[in-house]
Design brief:
mainly alpha, Cytochrome ubiquinol oxidase subunit I, heme, cell membrane, single chain, two-stranded antiparallel sheet, transmembrane helix
């Protein structure tokens, strides 16, 4: 493989790995803050125990997320310095906001929350929990604003051949970002919801025949997770529809590749599943099961809109952005070669469906959990906790598939041209890579992948340890004070 392919593999591996931690941290931090709020308001010990138990798992995951996330921004200088030089004036602003504002707020208030038990007044300590959780959302907002600029560049003008920021407000209020943010946050709540349902269902079933003093904790957790998952999936569906309509306007090739739509159709059908090779030049070789006119509705809210196919879009892209890469040594083997404007169709086609399908499975498991625990019932069938544990993985897979589709669907661009924006504010991925040797990229790729594998083992070990330990594993044996009340004292 050449430098470009290796650099893309490294960025893909490290980014997908890091994003396994991010949504769980975002979703779980808000839910834990909600649990603590319920404890402060009601004084019920089940909410205190919920806060302690789920807060411990949150901390393990947050620590791993920080470690793996540090590499992400360094990669822009390591493997993508040509990209950094081209867009740094614009792209650096939201990244700086994320680092200087959101991340430091996260770290500060998380530290106060960890060490503030029994030291800070209850309401002040609770405020720290909410400050930390809201800061994680703010951090996601700035990162998504930066990514959305790559998907739909706004607020910039070309000066001396490079994009120059002329409106940070335009970048932060980019309609692509405003659609991506609620969609991503809803995906984070979906992950946290499945996490609660799976672990709580296992604990609830494990001690179903004994007098478990923590049963109320597991029932409350499983029902909180169930309702959160259902609401999150509804928000995902609504915001996903908004994103689809923006994609139709801003990145029509991504829309066409998501459907492996070779030819322009009016109205266009939505493909549920395809049998055959979606990359085949002869579309008739692929058998699809379609919903008539649904793609037209998803694209433009009516059932008669024309949706352009891959072949027609390739012609348009060639006319506007050229048929061949520039004859530039920076491009290596691609210099002067024809530009392939078609993304990897199997990845985009199936990634889009995996994203939707696994998200629906997660919501369905949450709905099932609510039904089986209604009216104080305790599920006594062995299949349910197993299903709930397996379902923890489904929103993780759905989130990852969605990001892979989003990023690979914009190829061959790293900065996608804005159809109504300033000419020249776009960049081919092949132009963005650093001028380094394959050996250097292989070294960092192997080193980082190995390091991330070790960190993955550590996280699984710690999560498994605290999950199996349950409430008693994070809260020491209770003592009884002179008034006969439970005194539960524990510090992280």
């Amino acid at each position: 493989m050449d430098v470009l392919q290796l650099a893309r593999w490294q960025f893909g591996i490290t980014t997908v790995y890091h994003f396994l931690m991010v949504p769980l941290t975002i979703g779980l931090s808000v839910l834990v803050a909600g649990m603590q709020t319920a404890w402060v308001r009601t004084g019920e010990q089940r909410y205190y125990r919920m806060t302690k138990f789920w807060g411990k798992l949150l901390l393990v995951n947050f620590a791993m997320g920080v470690v793996t996330g540090i590499v992400q921004e360094f990669q822009f200088g390591m493997n993508w310095n040509a990209y950094s030089r081209f867009v740094g004036d614009v792209f650096g602003a939201p990244l700086a906001m994320e680092g200087l504002v959101a991340f430091f707020v996260e770290s500060t208030f998380l530290g106060l929350w960890i060490f503030g038990w029994d030291r800070l007044p209850k309401k002040v300590h609770l405020a720290c929990a909410w400050a930390f959780s809201l800061a994680t959302i703010a951090s996601a907002y700035f990162i998504l604003a930066a990514n959305s600029w790559m998907q739909h560049p706004v607020g910039a003008e070309i000066v001396d051949g490079k994009p120059t920021l002329n409106s940070i407000w335009a970048v932060l209020t980019n309609n692509t970002a405003l659609a991506a943010i609620p969609h991503t946050i809803a995906g984070a709540f979906s992950v946290a919801a499945a996490f609660l349902v799976g672990i709580a269902a296992w604990h609830l079933w494990r001690k179903r025949k004994t007098d478990d003093e923590h049963r109320a904790v597991w029932r409350s957790s499983i029902r909180l997770g169930g309702w959160t998952g259902i609401v999150a999936f509804a928000v995902l569906a609504i915001t996903g529809d908004v994103q689809g309509k923006l994609m139709f306007e801003q990145q029509p090739m991504k829309m066409a590749s998501a459907e492996a739509l070779c030819h322009t159709e009016q109205p266009a059908s939505f493909s549920i599943i395809a049998i055959g090779d979606v990359t085949s030049e002869n579309c008739e070789d692929v058998k699809t099961f379609n919903v008539p006119a649904l793609l037209s509705f998803l694209a433009h809210s009516d059932f008669s809109t024309e949706v352009k196919g891959v072949e027609d879009l390739v012609t348009e892209y060639q006319a506007r952005y050229g048929t061949n890469y520039p004859d530039d040594p920076q491009l290596g083997e691609l210099a002067g070669k024809p530009i392939d404007y078609v993304p990897n169709l199997p990845v985009t086609y199936w990634g889009f469906r995996i994203m939707i399908g696994f998200g629906a499975i997660s919501a369905g498991t949450g709905l099932l959990a609510l039904w089986l625990t209604r009216k104080n019932r305790i599920p006594d069938t062995k299949w349910f906790p197993r299903l709930a544990l397996l379902s923890i993985a489904t929103p993780f897979i759905g989130n990852s598939a969605g990001w892979i589709f989003t990023e690979m669907g914009r190829q061959p661009f790293v900065v996608v041209p804005n159809p109504s924006g300033v000419d020249g504010v776009w960049m081919f991925t092949a132009q963005a890579v650093s001028r380094i040797s394959t050996g250097e990229v292989w070294t960092s790729l192997i080193a980082l992948t190995t390091l991330y594998a070790v960190l993955g083992v550590v996280e699984v070990f710690l999560i498994r340890k605290y999950v199996r330990g349950g409430i008693d594993g994070v809260i020491p044996p209770k003592k009884t004070d002179e008034e006969g009340k439970d005194e539960l004292a524990f510090a992280y």
